[in-house]
Amino acid sequence: MAQTPDRKIIHVDMDAFFASVEQRDDVSLRGRPVAVGYAAARGVVAAASYEARKFGVRSALPSVTALRQCPELVFVPPRFDVYKAVSAQIHAIFADYTDLIQPLSLDEAYLDITANRRGIETAWKTAKEIRARIFEETGLTASAGISYNKFLAKLASDQRKPNGQFAVTPDMGAAWVETLPVSRFHGVGPVTARKMASLGIETGADLRARSLRFLQQHFGSSADWYYGIARGVDERPVNPDRERKSSGSETTFDRDLIDDGEIEARVLRQADDVWSWCERAEEFGRTVTVKVKYGDFQNITRSRTQPALVTSRDTLRAASLVLIRSVLPTPKGVRLVGVTVSNFERLTSPVTPGLPLFEAD
């Protein structure tokens, strides 16, 4: 699978964006563990500062659990209007360097700077200048990944977080991928990672060693994607105008389920399957639907439309949990569960990543 490494792609990812904005605007929060969200009984963490992450606090973690792990945790309610305003500042900076900007959420985007509008010597220096301008104009730090395709650039942006950057050059791309655990690959969710592990695939090298036919037998339509990324190949362009689709996954059980915890776990598996598709296709929606079929074949659905696009696995998981919990405890055995994301929108401006639905009706 040959790929001409003639593109220069930068993936910019703000560092703990929501929490960092709150710490910037309230000096009393600086240096303290902060969670954006609500400390309600069934609330979840929407975002966590790096100080909070040291205690294992992450987005989509139940608030009660987060407080147990970090009693000093400070909860701050989200301020969408402020986050959106700061995002607009950041995207205005991006626009000085390229017209090819593909926002993934409020706090991250791909930039194709191959045309080199500003005549900067290297993509590395371009990313460094962009990050410096973001800090100067917003007081916030960003990390960046630089490479010749989107898959590698996004992986690279995680390599030096926070407030750093990392480049994957054409001569190192394929070899670097081989050293990484497949669980880090975008499009490989927890369920798929566990399946790969059961097949002896734990690293990029393991994945590359499998034939396309083997991958097709075990992963169906996703096989071509896995085969390509194991070799550092990703032909997707940075595209500001992407068509939106819906994505859904459901499963029928061998036996009817009664236990709440087991039902929730199965819903999370379906949410992970859906997210793997969304992430790989870079298609995001606002409406999350959970479907339940009982043992007597009665069907029910529960849906919620988020205030913004669902652009993270944790957000989808949290929303799915809220919806399934609205029908638990179950009055009868559950035969099937499914999760669907819909209401996909054409991206015409920077979008706000949907926060989890904190409490059920």
Automatic annotation (TrEMBL):
<dbReference type="InterPro" id="IPR036775">
    <property type="entry name" value="DNA_pol_Y-fam_lit_finger_sf"/>
</dbReference>
<comment type="function">
    <text>Poorly processive, error-prone DNA polymerase involved in untargeted mutagenesis. Copies undamaged DNA at stalled replication forks, which arise in vivo from mismatched or misaligned primer ends. These misaligned primers can be extended by PolIV. Exhibits no 3'-5' exonuclease (proofreading) activity. May be involved in translesional synthesis, in conjunction with the beta clamp from PolIII.</text>
</comment>
<keyword id="KW-0460">Magnesium</keyword>
<dbReference type="InterPro" id="IPR050116">
    <property type="entry name" value="DNA_polymerase-Y"/>
</dbReference>
<dbReference type="GO" id="GO:0003887">
    <property type="term" value="F:DNA-directed DNA polymerase activity"/>
</dbReference>
<keyword id="KW-0963">Cytoplasm</keyword>
<keyword id="KW-0515">Mutator protein</keyword>
<feature type="binding site">
    <location>
        <position position="107"/>
    </location>
    <ligand>
        <name>Mg(2+)</name>
    </ligand>
</feature>
<feature type="site" description="Substrate discrimination">
    <location>
        <position position="18"/>
    </location>
</feature>
<keyword id="KW-0235">DNA replication</keyword>
<dbReference type="InterPro" id="IPR043502">
    <property type="entry name" value="DNA/RNA_pol_sf"/>
</dbReference>
<feature type="domain" description="UmuC">
    <location>
        <begin position="9"/>
        <end position="189"/>
    </location>
</feature>
<keyword id="KW-0234">DNA repair</keyword>
<dbReference type="InterPro" id="IPR022880">
    <property type="entry name" value="DNApol_IV"/>
</dbReference>
<dbReference type="InterPro" id="IPR017961">
    <property type="entry name" value="DNA_pol_Y-fam_little_finger"/>
</dbReference>
<keyword id="KW-0808">Transferase</keyword>
<keyword id="KW-0227">DNA damage</keyword>
<keyword id="KW-0239">DNA-directed DNA polymerase</keyword>
<dbReference type="InterPro" id="IPR001126">
    <property type="entry name" value="UmuC"/>
</dbReference>
<dbReference type="Pfam" id="PF11798">
    <property type="entry name" value="IMS_HHH"/>
</dbReference>
<dbReference type="Pfam" id="PF00817">
    <property type="entry name" value="IMS"/>
</dbReference>
<dbReference type="Pfam" id="PF11799">
    <property type="entry name" value="IMS_C"/>
</dbReference>
<feature type="binding site">
    <location>
        <position position="13"/>
    </location>
    <ligand>
        <name>Mg(2+)</name>
    </ligand>
</feature>
<feature type="active site">
    <location>
        <position position="108"/>
    </location>
</feature>
<comment type="subunit">
    <text>Monomer.</text>
</comment>
<keyword id="KW-0548">Nucleotidyltransferase</keyword>
<keyword id="KW-0479">Metal-binding</keyword>
<dbReference type="InterPro" id="IPR024728">
    <property type="entry name" value="PolY_HhH_motif"/>
</dbReference>
<dbReference type="InterPro" id="IPR043128">
    <property type="entry name" value="Rev_trsase/Diguanyl_cyclase"/>
</dbReference>
<comment type="similarity">
    <text>Belongs to the DNA polymerase type-Y family.</text>
</comment>
<protein>
    <recommendedName>
        <fullName>DNA polymerase IV</fullName>
        <ecNumber>2.7.7.7</ecNumber>
    </recommendedName>
</protein>
<keyword id="KW-0238">DNA-binding</keyword>
